[in-house]
Amino acid sequence: RCVLKELESLGKALYGAKLIAQRFQVQNCSHHKDPVSGSACLLSMIEEGNPHHFFIATQDQDLANKVKKKAGVPLLFIIQNTMVLDKPSPKSLAFVQKLQMNQLVPEHQKQSIVQLKEKEGLAKQEGAKRRKRKRAGGPNPLSCLKKKKKKTQEGQEPAAEKKKRRKRNRNRVKAEAVQSVQKNEEE
Fold first, then answer.
1. What is the pLDDT of residues 59-84, one digit of tens each?
2. How many other C-beta atoms lie within 10 A of the C-beta of residue 113?
3. How far is 84 from 78, CA to CA, in rounded Å?
4. CB within 8 A of 64, min separation 6: which ones?
5. How confident is the model at residue 155 (pLDDT cuts 50, 70, 90)?
6. How far apart are CA 28 and CA 39, in angstroms?
7. How far is CA 131 from CA 128, 135, 136, in A?
8. Residue 75's beta-bridge partner residues?
9. Domains in the chain: boundaries
């Protein structure tokens, strides 16, 4: 709101910029009743670590230098007809490295943690039983062997032995009945 008030006060020279700024969502600032300059308002909104994750887009070098002194605030500017995102400031890079170093555990602390776990019996055993995963195998190699021919004695063919035919049960019953009738007649 402070930027829009400043653009209105500057008059017709920045009327186009005012129209463009009005298209965007207006963020409420803390100086509602007594507006301050646009750059002071933007700086006040990114204080305390930029909690709303704002980007600052400006052509003002003084404002750009002040923004670069704050960590975690991306800076946009225009070169010819192209919007350019400025590389992270040294302050931002240092802040990120500090965060990473605080999150990482130093090597000597890792070793002491391992030793404490071993004392308490919480460490994983290296020699613990590990189950092997069964993997899909091929066919059984014994099922792939060629069938062996049976050896026959004295050259007899096994096919001749198999050619004996069985008689059906009912034929056999009839034949037995006929034989028994014939025996009875003979006697």
1. 888 989 988 888 888 899 888 888 88
2. 12
3. 6
4. 56, 58, 75, 77, 86
5. low
6. 15
7. 10, 12, 16
8. 56
9. 1-36, 48-116
Q: What's the pLDDT band for 100 if we cut at 50, 70, 90?
A: confident
pLDDT for the residue 175? 65
Cα–Cα dist 74/131, whole Å: 52
pLDDT at 158: 56
Position 11 scores a pLDDT of 83
Q: Which residues pair with 79 in a beta bridge?
A: 82
Distance CA 121, CA 128 (A): 13
Q: How far apart are CA 74 and CA 50, in angstroms?
A: 10
